[in-house]
Specification:
Blueprint: H1 3-16, E1 25-26, E2 36-41, H2 45-57, E3 63-66, E4 94-98, E5 111-115, H3 134-144, H4 157-166, E6 168-171, H5 175-181, E7 196-199, H6 208-217, E8 233-236, H7 251-254, E9 265-268, E10 271-277, E11 288-293, E12 299-302, E13 304-310, H8 317-323, E14 326-327, H9 329-334, E15 341-342, E16 357-362, H10 375-378, H11 380-390, E17 406-411, H12 419-431, H13 447-465, E18 470-476, E19 485-488, E20 490-491, E21 499-501, E22 512-514, H14 522-534, H15 541-545, E23 548-552, H16 555-558, H17 561-571, E24 606-608, H18 623-641
Parallel strand pairs: 1-9, 2-3, 2-13, 3-9, 6-7, 13-24, 14-15
Antiparallel strand pairs: 4-5, 8-17, 10-11, 11-12, 16-19, 16-23, 17-18, 18-20, 21-22
Helix pairs in contact: 2-18, 3-13, 4-18, 12-13
Active site: 578, 621
Domain Glucose-methanol-choline oxidoreductase N-terminal: 313-327
Protein name: GMC oxidoreductase-like protein
């Protein structure tokens, strides 16, 4: 069977798995075994990675994955029949959250989406498949503490790089495509044969090079490869898609459909994990897993003989812990839940990327080149040709682009000469104790949370001062947008901290998100520096030659701190769909929830493996990191049990 045929077959298997009998796919409690060695809670990016590796290597041990959603086909971010990044009619369901109003942003809410399907957010995301820097991971390792454990539990860049490689198979573009779009890469940064595919698009919109030229005029240099731990500059990033079909590659096919059948690997769908239960206290684990059927609302327990691995994601893992009595004791008391373990960090370190755009229009729109995304809606022939091209082998044309694969990453010292003024503010608030006033009210007096936040701020100050450590991302695929063009500003290392808390009126429903964006005022210093930097676009020969006219924020607004801060409050997106850090890997005396072995502090037989364990956000979209964390976690668990 040929390579491309094999992947089409496996994807078809996943698409139809919900209706085709499968001995390993369960839909009701009567189909489950009497007990399992491992129960993985959540069939998402990290959870399916762990389940795949455990069942592959610990063949005598039985693993059950419990997934809230179902098995469904997951189209790419930009697959037929859509127009330029519009909702796909066959897209799998997702959880859509609106946070509580953010007072510092005039009551604006953050909109957040997470996958509610086998494969989790890897099945619904934008497919931008980049990695954080070595500085990010070294900082996270510093925050995780040194518990004297084995080298396997070190989370610095050298301890993570091999897992990024292990998780993916990268296929370089052809020589002709690489030459056409000036793609660069270094295969040494990949080198793996992992089950997740990544590749470069075989198409770019005609105006994509416009911003690339403008960035270079601003002094931002192209980077040959941005997946090797360094990425300050102009980056190409692969998409999580197959190199032949250009179909989305996600955890549901990579770590489930393509490895079945395995006698020791069961999956039950359409079931919600309510909580984990320690009948004899948390030192007597592993816990039982209490599960609710979404089909008939019945409750039952799953007996676990080895470990429970929570992989429900940064927004749902804290909910399960809190329903289990593991979390901030004061909040648990307000919810009427008996405290099993007082861990104030559960759901208390929420972070996400955010920021406003800089926008402009052109005096004479693109008289000399095309195609442009607007042709997907204005030119039926062009769209039909694009659809036909996607059906070719290999796939060609616009639909292979996903959501785009280019971005700039810029450090604070390369944005503003005032960077040390900003980092001095951060260090001062950390050392004089005033920073605790910016923590969520219910934890700001907790000694552990204060100590942990102080350390985070000091580490972040070091990152922000490092000229090789990006603090701004601006991704782009085309500069055409409704009403004009834009360059987005991602704040990569926010200082504000939010919360994920149970909905007290309905604890089984989706949790309440309080993003608390801008609660640390230095975030606005960073936003202002980033917007002012991006406005330098309008001084470039390239944009001036196209008659670019700034529409927001404008020179007068940008010249005044108060006015520009008002623009940021009005225009910012408060979530770029990268929530993390709500069960942080830090020592318990510093507000941590898990140790470097990912075991929940004080809870025997319970680990967390998802993006909630990151102490701080990396300078990256989170999909590739979620796979790497899953791969590393699996090795840690396997080493324990072998």
């Amino acid at each position: 069977m040929g390579f491309s045929v094999a992947i089409i077959v496996s994807l078809a298997a996943l698409t139809s798995a919900a209706s085709v009998p499968n001995a390993n796919l369960k839909r009701q409690v009567s189909q489950l075994q009497s007990s399992y060695d491992f129960v993985v809670v959540g069939g998402g990016t990290s959870g399916l990675t762990v389940a795949d590796r455990l069942t592959q290597h610990l063949t005598t041990k039985k693993t059950l994955v419990i997934e809230y959603g179902d098995i469904q086909f997951a189209p790419g971010q930009f697959d037929p029949p859509t127009n330029w990044i519009t909702p796909h009619p066959n897209a799998p369901p997702s959880w859509n959250f609106n946070s509580l109003p953010n007072p510092e942003f005039n009551g604006k809410t953050a909109f957040v989406r997470a996958g509610q399907v086998l494969g989790g957010s890897s099945a619904v995301n934008g497919m931008f498949f980049d990695r954080g820097t070595k500085f990010d991971h070294n900082a996270m390792a510093e925050l995780s503490g040194d518990d004297g454990g084995p080298p396997l539990t070190k989370w610095n860049w050298s301890g993570m790089y091999s897992y990024f490689k292990k998780s993916v198979t990268f296929t370089p573009p052809s020589a002709s495509v690489a030459a056409k779009y000036n793609y660069t890469w270094d295969e040494a940064a990949y080198g793996g044969t992992g089950p997740v595919y990544s590749s470069m698009a075989r198409f770019q919109w005609a105006d994509q090079p416009v911003l690339r030229r403008a960035w270079q005029e601003m002094g931002i240099n192209p980077v040959k490869e941005c997946a090797d731990g360094t990425k300050e500059g102009i980056c190409w990033a692969p998409a999580s898609q197959h190199p032949i079909t250009a179909l989305r590659s996600h955890a549901g096919n990579a770590h489930y459909a393509n490895v079945q059948p395995r006698a020791n690997y069961d999956l039950i769908v359409k079931h919600q994990v309510v909580r984990v239960v320690y009948p004899n206290g948390p030192k007597s684990g592993p816990p039982r897993v209490e599960v609710r059927s979404l089909l008939d609302n019945t409750l039952f327990n799953v007996t676990v003989t080895g470990e429970v691995i929570l992989s429900a994601g940064a927004l749902h893992t804290p909910s399960i812990l809190q329903r289990s009595g593991i979390g901030p004791s004061a909040f648990l008391a307000s919810a009427g839940i008996s405290t099993v373990i007082d861990l104030p960090g559960v759901g208390s370190n929420l972070q996400d990327h955010s920021g406003p755009p800089v926008t402009w229009s052109y005096s004479s729109p693109y008289p000399s080149f095309g195609p442009l995304p607007s042709q997907m809606t204005s030119n039926a022939t062009f769209k039909a040709e694009a659809t036909a091209a996607f059906s070719q082998t290999p796939a060609e044309g616009p639909y292979t682009l996903a959501g785009g694969n280019s971005a700039i990453f810029v450090s604070l010292p390369h944005m503003t000469a005032q960077y040390k003024t900003i980092t001095k503010k951060i260090r001062k608030m950390a050392t004089d104790g005033s920073a605790s006033a910016y923590l969520p009210p219910d934890i700001r007096t907790d000694p552990a949370m204060k100590a942990g936040y102080k350390q985070q701020l000091l580490v972040l100050a070091e990152l922000l001062e490092n000229p090789d450590s990006p603090s701004l991302e601006s991704p782009w695929a085309t500069s055409e947008a409704p009403g004009g063009a834009m360059a987005l500003s991602f704040l990569l290392h926010p200082l504000s901290r939010g919360t994920v808390r149970l909905n007290l009126s309905s604890p089984l429903d989706q949790p309440i998100l309080d993003y608390r964006a801008g609660s640390n005022p230095v975030d606005f210093d960073l936003h202002l520096a980033q917007v002012r930097f991006l406005r330098r676009l309008f001084n470039t020969t390239t944009l001036q030659g196209l008659g670019a006219t700034e529409t927001a924020p404008g020179a007068a607004v940008a010249a005044d701190d108060a006015a520009l801060k008002g623009y940021v409050k009005q225009a910012a997106y408060l979530s770029f769909m990268h929530p993390c850090c709500t069960a942080a890997m830090m020592p318990k005396p510093k507000g941590g929830v898990v140790g470097r072995d990912l075991k929940v502090h004080g809870a025997k037989g319970l680990r967390v493996v998802d993006m909630s364990v990151l102490p701080i956000l990396p300078a990256a979209h989170l999909s590739a990191t979620a796979y790497a964390v899953g791969e590393k976690a699996a090795d840690i668990i396997i080493a324990d049990w072998e």
